[in-house]
């Protein structure tokens, strides 16, 4: 028995019959399922047919939603824009408001289920057009700028739309930004209709963009400001600067108002006076800020005047030397010591501290015949550069003793 079954399943005749039966069942399943309708939805553009000439159409929406049914095979091959057409027919309509049915044209095998909306409200109005000049609405220029010229090309546009809309248009404008204005370059700007609060979606502007170019100049003004000389370093320690004279003392600048408003003075190249011990004169260039012109000479003469510093030092109880030969044998001077204040440059005076006195105080008794006489105290300076400021006392009394 088992052998017979094995022979049956392995025979060519059985396999051919089994294949034919299986193919029949598959064909029956596919063809039976393809007859089942499939419903699909589409959102399509609404076409307008037989539009009367010389009118403008105002239609709130130009889209409709449709549902169509088809067998599974057709549904998978639908091309909406080709197989489903939705339209309204405007044949013979006069200007005014109208409610029209939405009609469909379907390819073979398609069945319309629903269409939404099924009717549309539209308004036909006579078309009109007119030329309107384009006016630029310019932003306010900042201080220091002046408008030389403005070019709008083309200078006018054509507006087309319903007769009522075209009548309501009061003008056409372009509105450049401040950056557009200052660029001094040709740019393309969109044309806007006035009043700008109105919705102009049903109006056509030809062209809707125009070329705009403005020429803006920088206004230059003049301003007189003082000249400041930066000083580097210090003079020799024995000297101080008493004056710095700049000729000229002021300079006239030319530039934009915005730039000059921020300038209260102008400087020269720095002047180095490190270690100088005499008056100095130099020619210095003016440092000119970017965007600024200097009217006149671009350099100044600078004269630096010095004054010597004075330092003092006091010698106290300095012994008075006696010089010369007198005619008397016994005599005396009173007092025998003095205080002496010397003065001179600080560098010299400071070098004398802690050293032997740089001066000698003395009196000369040569040829004194009086028995009692007030004589001056003289001071001999042994160091160059210093002088005697004060001797206290400046006279002593010479007295003969007998």
TrEMBL record:
Gene3D superfamilies reported for this sequence: 2.170.120.30, YbbR-like domain
Superkingdom, taxonomy of origin: Bacteria
InterPro entries listed in its UniProt record: c-di-AMP_regulator (IPR053154), YbbR (IPR012505)
Name of the protein in its database record: YbbR domain-containing protein
